[in-house]
Automatic annotation (TrEMBL):
<comment type="similarity">
    <text>Belongs to the ATPase g subunit family.</text>
</comment>
<protein>
    <recommendedName>
        <fullName>ATP synthase subunit g, mitochondrial</fullName>
    </recommendedName>
</protein>
<keyword id="KW-0375">Hydrogen ion transport</keyword>
<keyword id="KW-0066">ATP synthesis</keyword>
<keyword id="KW-0138">CF(0)</keyword>
<keyword id="KW-0813">Transport</keyword>
<dbReference type="Pfam" id="PF04718">
    <property type="entry name" value="ATP-synt_G"/>
</dbReference>
<keyword id="KW-0406">Ion transport</keyword>
<dbReference type="InterPro" id="IPR006808">
    <property type="entry name" value="ATP_synth_F0_gsu_mt"/>
</dbReference>
<keyword id="KW-0496">Mitochondrion</keyword>
<keyword id="KW-0472">Membrane</keyword>
Length: 122
């Protein structure tokens, strides 16, 4: 067990050394590759303008998303009306998805109330 911990520590030290050595060059390269997205004048007014543009762009996209949502609902309705033609694979995927959504809801409720999944508080 002690040798495993030492191996893990040495690998972590090597990874830290590599990150320290190449981190700044990666950062500079990332900024250079994406310089078209960087504002030349980073002022408060420019930031406020960009946030308003984002907000109103998102607001303008609501009708398109609304239509896409109702298309999906219509598709599901059609599939349910023709449920005799459904394959077992499609039913299984739908059941798995519903179960996963329900499980996430339950886990969210447990965590939101301050509980833990195992029942033990740390």
């Amino acid at each position: 067990m002690a040798s495993l911990v030492r191996q893990l520590q040495s690998k972590a030290a090597v990874a830290t050394e590599i990150a320290a050595k190449h981190g700044s060059s990666y950062y500079k390269q990332l900024l250079e590759n994406n310089k078209q997205y960087i504002q030349s004048e980073p002022t408060v007014q420019k930031c406020q303008e960009l946030s308003k543009q984002l907000f109103y762009t998102r607001l303008a996209s609501i009708p398109g998303r609304y239509e896409a949502f109702w298309k999906e609902v219509d598709y599901i309705k059609q599939r349910l009306l023709a449920r005799n033609d459904l394959k077992l694979e499609e039913v299984g995927i739908a059941a798995l998805f519903a179960g996963e959504c329900y499980a996430w809801f339950c886990v969210g409720e447990i965590v939101g109330r301050g509980g833990t999944l195992t029942g033990y508080r740390v």
